[in-house]
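Q: Here's a chain of 117 amino acids. Please give me its 3D structure as tokens.
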Amino acid sequence: MIREIKTEDYRICYDPATATVSFVGSLRLSGPAEYAPITELLSEVAQGELTKITLNLQQLEFLNSSGINMLSKFIIEVRKKARVQMAVQGSQRIAWQGKSLKNFQRLMPSLQLELLV
């Protein structure tokens, strides 16, 4: 069953058939409390018996430091499960992604980073 969190500013959708979490829009939430529903969704994904998880960020126009922190914690949580592969899909046309997404590879060296045009 596809899970979705949707507001006027963003949409986050988890498709269990492909184990892909897609982010669309702008995430400018303030702090962990406002990110809690998203953190909860990501935590559920990490708890699953998956061999590969994909984060599709290609349509995420903006992500603030609290959001980067949330995704970093998720990647660390996944890294602890040695059997799970992680892929992050980003876009070269969105400025923050080129800089920030590379840092996720420092957290999880086996992470596959795809920056698409």
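Q: Can you summarize the key feature?
A: The first strand starts at residue 3 and ends at 6.
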